[in-house]
Amino acid sequence: MSLAIELDNFIRRYVAAYSAAQVALLTEHYDEWQAPIYGAAVTDEWGQWQPIRQTEIFQFKGLAHALEQPLHTDLDIFFGRWFAADLFASYADHPLLLLQNHCTEDGERLQANLAGHVLMKRRLRQPITCFIGLAEESEDLLISVDNQTGQVGLEFVGQPQHEILAPSLAQFLSELEPRVVDLTTTPATQ
Q1: Complete DSSP assignment for the chain
Q2: Is the CB of residue 42 less than 8 Å from the CB of residue 24?
Q3: Which GO terms describe its cellular component (predicted)?
Q4: Which domains can be identified in the chain, with CATH numbers?
């Protein structure tokens, strides 16, 4: 099971789900970014977006070198294959929000946040994980990839993974369901 193929399939299913529900793909626009995903503005706050394949793959080698910590190779594919807005999804009974990069500048912000996360894990002497999203059940519940095993699990900020969702990111994505959220009528924290 290829992670790249599973990610591509999920992106296709996601776009198709929104199209079938006749709901626009919307995201917050950041004026300081020239994000290739941005389309027409819908309101002052929201604008349309579409997923765009990255031509220069965003990688975590620099971050890994700075941390003196190899990072799981799945991160390069998960964050480096597409430019996209964050993706609403469901896994089993968990409503989730998968983080994505709008553009290179957004990826740099993500790397800074991941560096802080890894340093916190070291300080707490916990297994290193890298977050890939948020579980909407609680504002401090993360979806993370175990840096050693590649398992995808749930963890509260400052705690080790407490629930394994899938043995790999590829399997996690294959079982993930898109969740259509109409941001023009629903708060983004749904």
Answers
A1: --HHHHHHHHHHHHHHHHHHHT---EEE--TT---TTEEEESSSSEEEE--EE-SS----HHHHHHHT----THHHHHHHSEE---EEEEETTEEEEE--BSSHHHHHHHHHHHHHHHHHHHHTT---EEEEEEETTSTTEEEEEETTT--EEEEETTS---EEEESSHHHHHHH-EE----TTTS-TT-
A2: yes
A3: cytoplasmic side of plasma membrane
A4: 3-178 (3.40.1580.20)
